[in-house]
Q: What sequence folds into this?
């Protein structure tokens, strides 16, 4: 069994979580939900260094399979000395849902809310 770890979550992982899963806790920030899912799955030993599918994987990455949604895999970096894990992104394992679980209108809205760089107001 893996030792307990402190879990941090990147902005990219939060955005991918919203795109693939959406927040189920009703919170605006999905970070606490992601961190708790990863911590529970880590404690349950659902951690591997084998990528869940074909393709290129980041060197030194660990993969944590969610307990709630078995098709969901969190891609993490692990600092063994500090007992910390950083969730970098997430994947949906093959055999997962064929369609995104969040309606496209919600993910499209996330893109529209970002300010444009270099846009002139003229």
A:
């Amino acid at each position: 069994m893996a030792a307990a770890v402190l879990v941090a979550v990147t902005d990219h992982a939060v955005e991918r979580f919203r795109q693939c899963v959406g927040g189920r806790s009703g919170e605006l920030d999905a970070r606490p939900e992601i961190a708790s899912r990863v911590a529970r799955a880590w404690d349950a030993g659902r951690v591997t260094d084998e990528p869940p599918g074909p393709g290129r994987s980041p060197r030194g990455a660990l993969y944590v399979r969610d307990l709630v949604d078995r098709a969901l895999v969190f891609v993490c970096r692990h600092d063994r000395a500090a007992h910390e894990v950083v969730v970098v992104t997430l994947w949906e394992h093959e055999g997962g849902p064929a369609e995104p679980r969040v309606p496209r209108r919600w993910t499209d809205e996330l893109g529209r809310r970002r300010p444009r760089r270099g846009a002139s107001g003229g």
The first strand starts at residue 6 and ends at 9. The two ends are 60 Å apart (CA to CA). The chain has a mean pLDDT of 78.
